[in-house]
Amino acid sequence: MMEKPNIRDAAAGAIFFAIGAAFALAARNLELGTALRMGPGYFPLVLSFILMGIGAIIVFVSFATAPEQVGSVPWRGFVLVLFAPIVFGLTVRRLGLVPAMVITIILAIYASRRANIPLAGVLSLGLTLFCLAVFTYGLRLPIPLFAPWLRF
Amino acid sequence: MDIFSNLALGFATALEPVNILYCFLGVLLGTLIGVLPGIGPTATIAMLLPITFALSPATSLIMLAGIYYGAQYGGSTTAILINLPGESSSAVTAIDGYQMARQGRAGPALATAALGSFFAGTVATVLIATFAPPLTRMALQFGPAEYFSLMLLGLITSIALAHGSILKAMAMIVLGLLLGLVGTDIYTGTPRFTFDRLELADGLSFIAVAVGVFGVAEILRNLENETDRDVVIKRVTNLLPSKKDLKAIIAPILRGTALGSVLGVLPGGGAILSSFAAYSIEKRLSSSPRRFGKGAIEGVAAPESANNAGAQTSFIPMLTLGIPANPVMAMMIGAMIIQGITPGPNVAIDEPALFWGVIASMWLGNLLLVLLNLPLIGLWVRLLTIPYYVLFPAIVVFSAIGVYSINNNAFDLFTVSLFGALSYFLVKLGCEPAPLLLGFILGPMLEENLRRAMIISRGDSTVFFTRPISAVLMVLSALVLVIVFMPAVAKKREEVFQEEA
């Protein structure tokens, strides 16, 4: 009897299976070696197959468990919080620490539905000063505060 | 006795002014994040790992350890006063602790939690000092076969003790092991899964993965329902428990300490499991179980002792064998590796001052916590009025700068976001993130020992069963697996975790 699968389990199993398959695919050109002298591909390939196996079992079992709700994703927060570190990484070298920090903080603040302009102003100023105190003056981190072309 | 000269060396290290200072900072920070819901010790330690670069190895481990056990203290304060456990290990404390507070007995509840924790911390420190040297001596005789079997047992036990589905926990471990293999193969120099990215030659950055999995993913979960915290604080008066209270809590504290000490050593154990187990045992042993849930002081004493004992004894396998029992210990191992120390039994021999200094600092830290917590409770609770929308941007920017500062490359920050997203979805689908991190740390070690064992035995895979210690460990692994999958146990296990949720 095929019923509707438990979405949470089915999705988790599918993700594991897909990742396992991706690793197996990426490992296909690595030398396997023998059990005595295992090559670089031996252990990863075994693990990939185990992961695919467990993933498949989870999907299989999901048809026998009661359905559950997954719940909604806070997309605005999701996008902004995940973009914040990436944007920091992309800007810190070209603009310097201070501008990169300010952009990151503002992105993060707007991930919350409570964000507004006064809050963003006060909080970004405060956090920037705090991070400068900790990282630049406390730990003497050698990251330039401003990129050369931004200096006056 | 050896132990006294060792402890003397330990206290000499722990009492150096710089170490006292960082021990204090550690427990202060631990209490702070323990009080604040939405940020736990794992995320905090991941965030602060880059900062420990600047410190000496002993000082950095002393501070990180302080954060971990300090968080257990802080979590119980809010659990009792406002029924909001700051840490998951304090969730049980909230049941009876909050009821006591509503009956006007917040003072004795807080004092009980502090005294129980302090007692448990003291006992656990002595236990570590007693059992670490013989375990270290034993570990020195371990060959690759024993290490492989031991790690396998550790991984399997952590599956058994993980929340939720066993299959999902297994998958998370295997996924973690695979991710740990990314980078250059140590035997042949062949790059694996690096996609020709130079940044991946040394593997995925441990700190970046940890910050993504525990920091970013946690923020995303908290953004799902942003609610205001209404904090109504009554003044806490009359801290001292009565004579009757004292008599009632002695046995639960002793039992909780014993239970926590044992469970803490187990992989996947540690503070959370200890506190839940201690609570259910007290309830079962009590002559009047009906009082539980209605402000029974035993229901505060036992779990609070147990979670502190468990938090501390989980250092034993980390310090002696170099094998993490939980993600926080994995983080400690990461901290040692950053400092150029190879974790394992050699730490006790090559770095006695570090080894014993960390152990001695735990007792010192517990003392500081009692002094810090009881008089300042009002201040801690006021911290709860900090809204989350102020807190999480700070976490984001702090993590970003910290992760970037390790290698000065942007790639590690992409790793943070990637693992934040992956982990968020996996947690949403009911997968625990902790086993993934354990697998990630153990992956390279597991492979190395497997390959070495096979080379030494000339390809004979029975080596894992013919060497006595390894054989015992293998049999234990098999037993744990069988027990976990037995229908009766599986059902009972589900019930236990149901109660928690």
Descriptors:
heterodimer, A: 152 residues, mainly alpha, 0% strand, flat, B: 501 residues, two-stranded antiparallel sheet
Strand order of the largest sheet of chain B: 1-2
* Helix fraction bin of chain B: over 70%
**Could you say which overall geometry of chain A the principal axes of the C-alpha atoms support?**
flat
DSSP E strands of chain B, number: 2
What is the helix tally of chain A? 5
Provide the β-strand percentage band of chain A: under 5%
The portion of residues forming beta strands of chain B comes to under 5%
- What low-confidence regions of chain B span 5 or more consecutive residues with pLDDT below 50? none
Category by helix and strand content of chain B: mainly alpha
Judged by helices, strands and strand pairing, the structural class of chain A is mainly alpha
How are helices and strands ordered from N to C of chain B?
A: HHHHHHHHEEHHHHHHHHHHHHHH
Rg for CA atoms of chain B: 22 Å
Please state the average pLDDT score of chain A.
89
Question: What is the radius of gyration of chain A?
Answer: 24 Å
Can you summarize the main beta sheet of chain B?
2 strands, antiparallel
Largest sheet of chain A: none
Layout of SSEs?
The complex is a heterodimer of chains A (152) and B (501).
Chain A lengths: L6 H20 L15 H21 L12 H21 L1 H13 L7 H22 L14
Helix pairs in contact in A: 1-2, 3-4, 4-5
Chain B lengths: L1 H13 L2 H19 L5 H8 L8 H26 L8 H12 L3 H35 L3 H18 L4 H15 L2 E2 L6 E2 L13 H19 L18 H23 L5 H15 L12 H16 L1 H7 L5 H12 L7 H5 L1 H31 L5 H20 L3 H18 L5 H23 L6 H4 L1 H18 L1 H14 L1
Antiparallel strand pairs in B: 1-2
Helix pairs in contact in B: 1-16, 2-4, 2-16, 3-4, 3-9, 4-5, 4-6, 4-12, 4-14, 4-16, 5-6, 5-12, 6-10, 6-12, 6-13, 6-16, 7-8, 7-19, 7-21, 8-19, 9-17, 9-18, 10-11, 10-12, 11-12, 14-19
Please summarize what this structure is.
Chain A is mainly α and 152 residues long. Chain A is built from five helices and no strands.
